[in-house]
Design a protein that fits this description.
Elements: H1 2-23, H2 29-51, H3 62-71, H4 73-108, H5 110-125, H6 128-139, H7 143-166, H8 171-179, H9 184-218, H10 228-237, H11 241-269, H12 274-277
Helix pairs in contact: 1-2, 3-11, 4-5, 4-7, 4-9, 5-7, 6-7, 7-9, 9-11, 10-11
């Protein structure tokens, strides 16, 4: 019972601190408030699990997850390299790169626009649980099949956003380029691609989460004895839920960091766009 009372008291104190930070506009409040909120969630989680004697098989306390993170760092790092750097990141680069190139080709040709966009839509509609086993049979059990699944998942969002972005310029802007005797390539590089950057980055940010999810789920259908998806499925079978939550924690932090990195790159490359100027 003492765990429940202590966690609830901590929650009340944390709310009071956050209200004080926001009302008095304390410097750094935008950074401190989410940190305090996150710590409060962990304290409540710990207190409720211990106070109600919840079985660790159902829900392990954060302290047990933290012990797994520290004691199994070598395994987590090995899984991270296999799933993220080999599978997700490789597939992300290949899928996004090919989507941007094909979007430029589609923008150049009305025939390709009528033919390739429906194909991309068809690929995006394929369920990952049906696609992953096929990719494993085609490309093997190593990271290559996971990268192929990621390519299929990230391709369509980036393709659609890039095509839409390339059409974002108006007739007056394109007419101005023609008065300078600029052909298609100079117009593309100096006008249309820069104008499409906010749309492209929207697709790239969506693809960051899809890439990691695709790589992890694909490992459930065949993988060498390493990888985040492999570890989660194996540890669930062993009822080692603390290790499962440790892998989930690493995946969540990694996915958030990857998204933040792309968002930071967007701010650096589209600083001129009104949406970025408003946040300054």
């Amino acid at each position: 019972m003492i765990w429940i009372i202590a966690s609830l008291l901590f929650w009340v104190v944390a709310i009071a601190i956050n209200v004080h930070l926001v009302r008095h506009k304390v410097p750094g409040a935008s950074f401190l408030v989410p940190i305090i909120f996150g710590v409060t969630i962990l304290v409540l989680w710990e207190g409720m699990v211990r106070g109600f004697n919840i079985s660790p098989v159902l829900l392990p306390p954060p302290s047990a997850v933290g012990v797994a993170l520290v004691s199994k760092t070598d395994i987590l790092l090995q899984d991270l390299v296999q799933t993220f750097f080999k599978g997700a990141l490789t597939g992300y680069a290949m899928g996004c790169g090919s989507a941007i190139l094909i979007a430029i080709a589609i923008d150049r040709s009305a025939f390709l626009q009528r033919g390739l966009l429906p194909v991309g839509n068809f690929i995006a509609a394929l369920p990952i649980v049906g696609l992953a086993p096929i990719m494993v049979m085609w490309f093997g059990f190593d990271w290559h099949s996971k990268a192929a699944v990621v390519v299929a998942m990230v391709f369509f969002p980036v393709l659609v956003n890039t095509v839409q972005g390339l059409q974002a310029t108006d007739h007056m802007q394109r007419d101005l380029m023609r008065t300078y005797a600029a052909g298609y390539v100079p117009t593309l590089l100096k006008l249309r691609l820069p104008a499409a950057m906010p749309f492209i980055f929207n697709g790239l940010k969506i693809a960051t989460t899809l890439a990691l999810i695709g790589a992890i789920v694909a490992e459930f259908f065949g993988s060498p004895i390493k990888g985040m998806g492999f570890r989660i499925s194996t540890e669930v079978g062993r009822l080692s839920l603390d290790m499962v939550w440790a892998e989930i924690t690493v995946a969540a932090i990694l996915g958030s960091g990857f998204y933040g990195l792309v968002a930071l790159l967007e701010k650096r490359m589209t600083f001129w766009h009104p949406s970025q100027r408003k946040t300054r």
